[in-house]
Sequence to fold (939 residues):
Amino acid sequence: MGAFMARFGKRIVVILPLTWLALFFLMPLVETVQVSFTTARRSVPPYAPLWGFEDGAFFTNFNLENYALLFEYWQDYLGPAANSVRLAFFATLVCLLFAYPMAWWIARSSARMRTILLVLVMLPFWTSSLLRLYALIGLLNPNGFINSVLMYIGLIDQPIGMMQTDFSIYMGMVLTYLPLMILPLYATMVRLDGDLIEAAADLGGSRFHIFATVILPLTVPGIIAGSLLVFIPAVGEFVVPALLGGPDQLMIGKVLWTEFFRNRDWPVAASLAMLLIAILTVPIIYARYQDGRQDEAEAHKLGDASS
Amino acid sequence: MKQGIGWLSLTMGVLGFGLLYLPITVMIAYSFNAGKLVSVWAGFSTKWYASLLHNDQLLSAFGKSLWVAFWAANISTIFGILIAIAFVRFGNFRFRLGLSALASAPLVMPEVVTGLSMLLLFIAMEAMFGWPSGRGIDTIIIAHATFGMCFAAVVIQARLRDFDQALEDAACDLGARQPFIFLSITLPIIAPAVIAAWLLAFTLSFDDLVIASFVSGPGSSTLPIVVFAKVRLGVTPEINALATMMIAVVAISVISASIIMHRRLANKTE
Amino acid sequence: MAPFIRLQNVTKNFADVNAVNDLSLDIEQGELFCLLGASGCGKSTLLRMLAGFETPTSGRIEIDGQDMADVSPADRPVNMMFQSYALFPHMTVASNIAYGLRRAGMQGAELDARVDSLIKLVRLDGLASRKPHKLSGGQRQRVALARALARQPKLLLLDEPLAALDKKLREDTQFELVDIQEKLGTTFIVVTHDQEEAMTLATRIGIMDQGCLEQVDAPRVLYERPKNSFVANFLGTATFITGTVTKIDGAFLHVDGACPTVVYLDPKSDRIAPKLGATVTLAIRPEKIHLTRTKTGQQNESMVIIEDIAYLGVASNYRVKRDDGLLFKLQQTHGQREKTPLEWEEKGFVHFDPADVIMLED
Fold:
């Protein structure tokens, strides 16, 4: 056993996950590309095979109609795609707006408070996000909690329309993604040397000035990491627009779902998946690039320490 | 002048926590509402909890979700450990770039894409090999394990990087070889991170709606699928009760875990 | 008979950095050998190559006649005591010590007895079921030692074993370490940067600098007859004088230069006598330079002014200067100082015996 492990151990450790991921992550994407080039039809599965042999002759159903469709009916497809980017972008900003002060609060608290606050941040994350979004509906509905309370107090006499608006989408996104924005920010802030701030104050800086020139620049890595962590999945988000969005908040994730489950047009759904990946390619590559720079910085620190 | 926390941070902080917790709080309160609507308080009642316990559909979905999450977490953790070992210990091995790309892409890929693509793969595989025959619990487990292992790997990698390799060297010097060194020395020491990774994979699986919707089949509806269908139709107070119970379980577990960790750390520094 | 441990032309390169440079060394069985050098000199790399954690880029390592190429650390008759101790935090003291024994197949009563005897050897009685985080630094060090001795290795490597201990504890532990080594007869190789430690522990010391061995000798020889100025300066201090040989009078050399000196060359020593007109570097140890208030008329005498005195309790270190700027570093014991109580900025005379002058090879 020992000799076997010595020779093959390393290879097994790499090959096992590599094979799984190649098979169950990479191949599916390959398959999706293929399906995006065929046509839908009434069959099981509901699309024509991309290629095959019939009566000994090779045939193919390759066509670009699905992609043509995306452009032809651009209001139904490219519109929501642009909408997704817009909504995801502003949702990320709103998340940042809440997460930055919260992360600062946690980072500057005593060790004991920090643990408690972090647990409070992570606790909702461990409970079903679906149920929490459901609860949000109950809050924002015309006959929901907030409207009922406001009308009961007498502040308003007509319910405020909060559902199926950009606002409800942003609230839903924040509810889902806030911890993902807080954690990288917190990680950066907690490493911030308090002496820098004191030195700046000592040299006569106002609070705002210190923030703008010392704190903000040093927390930029955290801002970038958190923003990417929120923006990228938010673009393809389905549940939030499905539960909280109206026709003006149509996002590409929901369009894909509708094409797949309602229209049973799998090839178009596949082409939408490709569109989604295309939109996200640049941010994903940027995120990987940032990861790489982080790794390098860490490796450098380790390299200098060894003697 | 000491830069403390500042009133701005505190205000936004309170607002932020409010946003996170207000929906849950209202939901818990109204799970005890005798009436159906959120807008009207019709008195205190636990009838929704009773009716929940008789709701076979919800209960069976709950059980399926537990089963799927359990096995998805197991596979995720084991493979996550393998990925972490490869990246932290193996230097520049042959497929490093490939494994790195494959192990980080699922972290950012939109769920609709992973869900759709995995379903297409399962169909193609069924056509070619006859397996998997139809979609069901197995395909959901495979799908969840696939993205789960990537998250698990991130958690375990972070811990493994800080692990003092001198300990493994000492074990080797004393006559041990791999994998015994890993099992007897490394694993017990990084156990908290492994457990955290398992819980993370479990939660992600239990909570997943989109991917499960794509790759599930008849009779394998998980809890999120059932809840989503119900929510579409309208308010069901039983869901309030279900949510409250789940939150209670999670809150108790997290708080007890924190207390245990706190005690262990206090013990160590004696 | 071949030496117990033989390193032949061992070189180790990391990327473009050379850590060990064509090093050859023989070590006898039962020695307590010290590798002494500053950080970065390659001593730790050499130790790791002996343990098997690094492979030499070129060269050969033999232990008890067996070539260690391709032999993993687990299979070598070598054990190592790590600088950070590397105790397994999730195991008790007893389990830590037993780990290697279990790997060797020992079990049951035999195992327990052996663990007990080791605990007694390092004086950790009563602590068998404690975990490392509940032990003091000194206690942890003993566990590391016991664990490394458990398998009765032919060679024990110790990486800066006393570095983490405070001074008092270090002194006591030094003697204990020597006792244990003499009792067991195991060959020890200790790596350290502390010259006092090396002098106390070692039967022989190898001084390393930039990947090479400068000199390998018993501590006394290293101190009294250093080969070059690096060794002379590394082990203790010295006053250095350069000059040219102007006259050879039998076994006596007259060297002229900064300070005219008469040197007595021991005909029994294996140093090659320099020729007339050659440039030489001389060194004199501080305790060999004598301070007097008045001129004595002895050989190698100079008039000096006291520049600095450092009182160290047992002795005092002086820096005294001649007219032409040459600085002598000398040491007087407490007793000597009482006899010649010269203070700052006073005038005095120093002299030293020609036989006490060390001729360096560089």
Summary: The mean pLDDT of chain B is 87. Chain B has eleven helices and no strands.
